[in-house]
Each structure stands twice: as structure tokens, then as C-alpha cells.
Amino acid sequence: MLLAAVETRKIFGGTTHLERVLFYLLSLVVLVVFFAGLGLRVKKYMAGRPLDAGRFRRARVPLEKPGVSAPIPLAQTGVDIAANRTVSRRNHAVGGAHLLLFWGFLGLLAATIIVGLDYDVYGNLTRIFGGKELSFFKGWFYLGYNAVFDTAGLAAIVGAVWLAVRRIRDTKSSVALDYTRAQKPKSGYSRAAMTAGDHLFIFGLILILFTGILLQGLRIDAAGFPSFERWTWLGYTVAVGFGALGLHGSAAGSAHFWLWWVHILMALAFVAYLPFSKALHMISAPANLAVRDPGNTRRLPSPPSGHAGYQDFADFTSKELLGFDACTKCGRCHAVCPARTGGAPLSPRDLILDLRQYADRKRGIPMVLDWEERPDQSGPKNLEGRLAGEVIEPATLWSCTTCMACVEICPVGIEHVPTIVSLRRSLVDAGEMDPTLQSALENIATQGNSFGKSSRMRARWTKGLDVPIPDARKEEVEYLWFLGDFASFDERLQEISRTLARVLTANGISFGILYEDERNAGNDVRRAGEEGLFEMLVEKNMEAFSKAGFQKIFTTDPHSFNTLRNEYPAYGLDKPVMHYSELLASLISEGRVSLSGLGRKVTYHDPCYLGRYNRIFDAPRSVITSAGCELVEMPRNRTNSFCCGAGGGRIWMDDSVLAERPSANRIREAAELDVGYFVVACPKDYAMFSDAVKSTGNEDRMKVVDIVELFAEASGELALAGAASEEAPES
Amino acid sequence: MKIVVAMRQIADLVEELEVDASGADIDREFVKFVSNEWDEAALEEALCLKEAHGGEVVVVGVDDVDFDQTLFGALAKGADRAVKLSCGFEGWMPTAVRAELLARWLKDESFDLVLTGVQAADDLDGQLAGVLGARLGLPHAAVVVGLEPDGDGFKVTQELGGGVTLTSHATGPLVLGIQAARQAPRYVPISRIRQAMSAGGIEELEVEAPTARAPKVTRLFAPEAKGRAEMLGDKPSEVAARIVELIRAKGISVS
Ligand code: SF4
Ligand code: SF4
User: Fold this and answer.
1) Quick check: do A14-49+90-279 and A589-727 share a fold?
2) pTM given for the model
3) Chain B contact for A462 (CB, 8 A cutoff)
4) Which ipTM score applies to this complex?
5) Any idea which architecture A449-586 has in CATH?
């Protein structure tokens, strides 16, 4: 026997026949539960609207940008998942720990499958058909197997312990991990079960991993330390430890017997628990990442046919239902949300959790320790009530600025914004909205602008220009300038519009405007949920475009920019759309202007609809730095920029209920930087931040300026116009 | 309960109104016409009554520029019928004439209430409800701010001057000029208006030309400026200096 020693171990070493039968029976039950659970979920997704509903609306965007309008290629998603890229974003420590656990767990899963293949499949096949049971689980394969998968085991344990420690350590201090709801139900609520579920998940996993390693140690110890088991390096080390503690031979053997059952029962329980708990994200998260399309936020899907907005469970797309199941409650969206930060009753995390609970309850799918408890039948427990309005409160839906910060950061690829807008559409259909929003929409419907001014006043701002702006309806121009409502009607911004006109004229740019034929582009109208009005505005603007002669469009307003660039192509717009920051930057890069150094210390705010939505980060920065300004970045910049609070129709709603307006929060952030200028590239930002600088008492320290004002001043041809010409504070 | 709501179009006051060549009317060529906001309040009150107590809401009016928009809007909000009376009338319609056309149509209808806006931009003295009531021989009231069914009739609340309100009981049918509905006029999504438009549903009636006698407009003009206000600017030091200068120049009489 000794001579014949082969490097292997006996599967089920030391168990009796009865125990093996018991094990297989239990496994069978567990697999049935597991697949039944998964089946229930898949059936739930199939009950949603098909994935591709609305895709017919997708038309190629001129100037298509990867990661903006084009869907994310599957190969990239593969890399994102394998490298846990979405988990490590802006949080490398957690990402690293998760990556260890992710690959360690996959390794151990592979190890289990290999043993099963050898013993249950290969072994049985050879016994039945060859008369003699064979195994490949021996020799060099056995040694390599143990060396590799012991490493996986260690990685998983280190990752899991790291995550557990972090969760316990940070629960109090981290906004993301704080489960307090943003919207407080009248009846009260408890999320203790969710917290317990989190702990059960991570500590259960750690226990399973630990007992697995201990088992190896006991087995090697009981077998008397065969020298080839040194390849099972982790188990061997543990065995040495047991030996040092005086645990040997049959004592180790019987300890192994009991611990084996403990380990197996926990592991089986975990498999059964998986489809009904937080552990589900191991399957639903990669699946959701594979079907994610952040383009859905930039180019909103059309309403379900026959309904203006979401009214019940069947209106959700399969993709949305899968996304609800993918949420890990990581709270990253909760932490970045400007509505939540400002004290509004909206948290994108709570919204997704409520919708998940609602959907599961509707389908009768139970969850283990993953539901919020309420004493009454309100919110997600309200299965008969209106989805938009009762299950989800109107104030919650109206609080969203559609800033896209949640979609950007969600590690599992959930797209909150299209869901929020789809629910808003139902509120609009029922006429339930803020009176100020109602009058803005009525103004837009009758006058084509939110200011309620006559559409014939739209080009009034051009009065006072020495060189009149060509009428693109009457003469052919290279660029059609689409101003948007604020740049046309707001008095503070009209001067900036004139500055831009002067700069472009001075630099020989061929451009024109639509005069009274321009209408609100409808970006925020659509995001407020008024789809019919949006379509009407598109028709009006498309009609105006068809009457004009131009090659490209540029906009002042990043919101108009987004809808013209990403949504209008579906309605026939086939011209490239740019933002004025790109136009100014190209004047500089082509060497058409030379700017002289202003020598100022400034910071820059990335507008949501320019930055996160359309990935234009560098053009405005190049204008700033070319104008000789020292740019001090905001702590939250580029894709992590913090919304001014005006988007998604919020600019038309009352925000006096907020504890702190997002714009004020942002100015406080800038005030830490010791800069004299707060540079913007969006008319709404100019309006919002000019107010916020006043309301936070920073008037003497900081001035809000538009990039074109810097450009004009640095190009020397024009004095910095209007308000900005007054003595500016020195930085 | 059957409620008739009489609605009309007015020139959109957001626009700059101009007097036309005749000198007796606004220039109707370029001006936009919208629904009278008090009529919208009347419609809202009618819809609320219908929602609370059941019944039917019929909207009626004399054809005018873009009147279809208003009717489709009313249908989209929940009105059951929309009737448009056309008689080829052009230009500004005096209230007496409007009342005649509406009364002729109403004579053949049965109803419990006729609601209309208490006034309109071109009828600031709020004649329509009164003249209509008189023509129909029905009780009428204006500046109504509250309306509830009450036994065999209605409890009508009116606003008087000096913050006083008056409540009366009247048995119908009644003609009322509505000052305010119980809630702000509801929003009607464009998609619903479009649905109403594609469903059609406006009953268009050719009616005979009006015969009512009404005053003829001889001259329409913008208020003439009598003296000018001088804006003193916004820099406190300059304003103060200018005030001193003015006092010096004009003197102060202390009595
Ligand atoms: S889009 Fe912005 S405001 Fe809306 S839920 Fe997401 S993070 Fe919050
Ligand atoms: S929605 Fe996404 S970001 Fe928000 S808690 Fe869930 S997984 Fe995290």
C-alpha cells in the first residue's frame, strides 16, 4: 500500500454509505430550490416588457461617441466584469477586496465542479461502461489543483474578511452604507432585516470558506502529513497548526467528520439561499451589466404603447426588473444623489429597493432578510395602489434632477433615470405636478418657451449688436446657433449671448439663428415626463430646421445639446450637433485666435448634460487654460461632477423645501478652493450659481463667469461685457 | 347634472397688441389667440362638480381663431361634448352679440347650470353671465367663488367688495360668472389633446347671423402717456444726488 501511494485523496474519505446517500438527497433538494428560485426570477423578467421595446427609436447619431450614444460592446462588459471595474470605480479598496473575493469564489466554484466531474461523472461513466472506476484527480493534476485552489481560497477569505471589516467599521460614518430612507413613510419603517441579511451573507460566506480550509488541515493532519500534500499549502499550514496544538490521528479524523457536515450543510444552505437574497447579485449583477445601456438615459425610451407612463408591474421592461434584482444596496447612488444630499425625499437606492420589493411581492417571490418592514400596507407593500403616486410618492419622483450621477456610479449597471421619467409620465398624465411646473409647461405649449414670453420676443437679445446675426432661414450659414430659452430670455444671460455673438463674428464664423422659429428643444420637458409636448416641440423645431440652410448646429445650453444630439436623430435630424465650448476650443486649437494670459485662479463646474451625459470635459477646460487661467479642479469633477439642481425640469419647481440647494452645496465646495472665479459653460448654471453665490454669502470671494466671457476678455478684442466688467475680486 | 360651459378666445396678452388700420380693432393678423383664463376656471369648476356628483359637461362657444384648440383641450380634460357655433362673424364680438348667439343655442338645450368666466380681457365689466341670464330669463350671478348642489338647487358663494362673501341658495337652472374654481385649472397633457384631436368630436353648427344691437367701436387706442416717470437709476449715491437736485430745483413746501 505504501509503495502504491499516489498523490490523491479519497472523495468522501471517511463517510459511510448512508451519509453519502444523505448528502446526495440533500444536494438534490438544494438544487431544486436553487433552480426553482432562479426560475421564478426568470419568469418575473419575462413578464416585463421585452428588452428591445423602443429600440426602433434608435437612429445613428452624427458624431457618434463611444460610451455616449453607442451601446457598450459586450467584450468591454466582459472586461468590466472580470476586472470588477465598476466596483473599483472611485473606491479602489472595496474594489480590490471584491476582486479577491470574486476570483477566489469563482476558483472554489471551479474546484467543486472539477471534483464533481471527476467523481460523479467520469468515475461513474468508467465504472458503468469500463467496469472499473477511474479518476483523473491524482498525480500532478491533484498537486496543481490543490496549489491553485488553495490560493483561490485564501484570496476569497482575505477579500471577504476585508469587506466584512469595512462594513462594520464604516456603517456609522459612511453615507452610502446608512440605510436610513430619504423619504420617510408616515407609518415608520424598519430596515433591520436588510442589515441582518447583509451580515448573514458576508459572515456566512466567511464561515463556509474558513471551515473549508480547516477541513483540509484536519484531513492532512489525520492522514499523517503525506509530503506531497505540501502542495496543498494552505491546508498543510493549517494542519501543522493543528499538530502544534496537539490534535492528531483519530481525534483529527473525528473532528474532520463533524466539521465536514457543518461545512457541507452551510454550503448547501448557501446555494438554496442564493436566489432569495443579496447573494443573488452574483448572478443578476453580471447579467444586468451585460444588458446595460446608459444610452437609455441620454436618449429616453418611448412610453409603453397604450400607456402614457408606467402604471403597473407589466410596464417595467425585463431589463428594469433584472436591474432591480441586481442592486446590492451599495449606496453609491444614494451618496452622490444631489436630491438626497439636499434633503429631498428621493434616494435612487431606496427607489430601486422599493420597486424590487414591489415587483417581488406582486409576483409572490419571497426574500430572505432583504425586505424593509412597515407596520401598514404603504409604499412597496401597496400592491393595489397607483405605482406612480402611491407605491412611489410623487414628491420622490419630482425630486430627481436627472443628473445621471446614479447611473454613472452604479456598479451593477442600473439605469434609474429612465425608470424615474417613465413613472413621472404617469403623474403628468394625471395632471399631478407642482403649479410652477404646470405653468412652465403651459407656457412652453403655447409660446414655445418656459418664460411665457411671446415667441416673437425670442431674438430681442440681438438688439444692441453692431453686426446683426444672419437669419438662417433666409441665408445659408455654416453653423446654426440654437440658444435655448435661458440664453434668449434671461436678462443676465442675454449679455453673455451677445458676447458669444460678438466673439463669433469677430472670428469670422459663419453662423445664424432661427429667430422666432426656435422653440424650447424639449430636453427638460421630456425629462419632466411630458412626452406629448416634447414630441410637439421636436416637430416644431424640425420644421424650422427644414426651412433653414446650415451644415452644423451648436447650442449654448447643454440640455438642448443633449436632446438635439441624442434624441432628435430618431426624428430625422441628420446634422452634427456641437456645444459652443467645442466651437471656442476649436478656434483656439486651429490657431485662429490668440488669447493673452488673464492670470486668474479659477475653478470649473462640469454641467451634467455636457460632462456625464455627453463626455465633453476637455473643450471648456482648454478654453480656460488657453485664456491663461490657472484651473483648480473641484473635488467632484468630470464624471463625478455635482449637479446644480436645475435639470430634469427641477428649474421650474419649488426647491424651498430643500435643506440645502444643490447649487449652494456646490458653491461651498468651490469656496474651499481659494479661487476668485467659478467658471460655467451652461446658461442654467450661470443663473443657478449666481444665486447660490449670493445666498451663501460668497459674493465678495467668488464671481460666476461663463467660458465665453473669459475667452472674450483674453482675446483682447472685446472687453468683458456686462456684469462681469465690474471689478472682479482678485484670487 | 348637466353643466354647460361657455368659453371664448381672447388675444394672448403676452403678445404686444397693435391697433389695426381701421383704428377700431386690434390687429388680428399676427396676434395669437388663447382661451380666456376665467372660462378655464369655469370649466374646472364644472369638471370638479361632475367628478363629485356625476353628470355631463358640455362646452360651447362662438367660433374664433384657434377655438378648436380650446375645445379639444376641454374634451381632453374630461368634457363630454364640445359645440362650436359658426356664423362667419369676424373681428371683435361685443358681449351682447355673443350672448345672443349662445342664448339661441341654449334655448333648445336642457341644463342645470351655465358657467362662464366672470370676465375676459375684452369684457372686463363681466357682462356675459348677466346678459345671457337675462336673455334666457334665468337667475344669474357673477363673481362666483363657490358652488355646491344644495337640496333642490345650489349654494352659490359670491365675492363682494371689501373681503365680504355672500352665500345664497338658488334653484336652477342658473347662469353663473365664475371668478375662481375650487382648484387651479388642471394640466392636460399634450398627448391627450392630440388624442382628442384625432378623435374629432367637435360639433360644428352653422347659426344665423346675430341681430342683437351692440355699440360700435369708434376708436381703439393705447393709453396716452400723461407726463413721464423718471427712473432714478440703481446706484444709491446717484439716486440720492438726483433727489437732492430735484428738491433744490422744485423746492419744498412745508405746510
Ligand atoms: S439622476 Fe441625479 S437626482 Fe436623479 S436619482 Fe439619480 S443621482 Fe439623484
Ligand atoms: S442602485 Fe446601484 S449604486 Fe444604487 S445601491 Fe443599488 S447597486 Fe448600489
Assistant:
1) no
2) 0.92
3) no
4) 0.86
5) 3-Layer(aba) Sandwich (3.40)
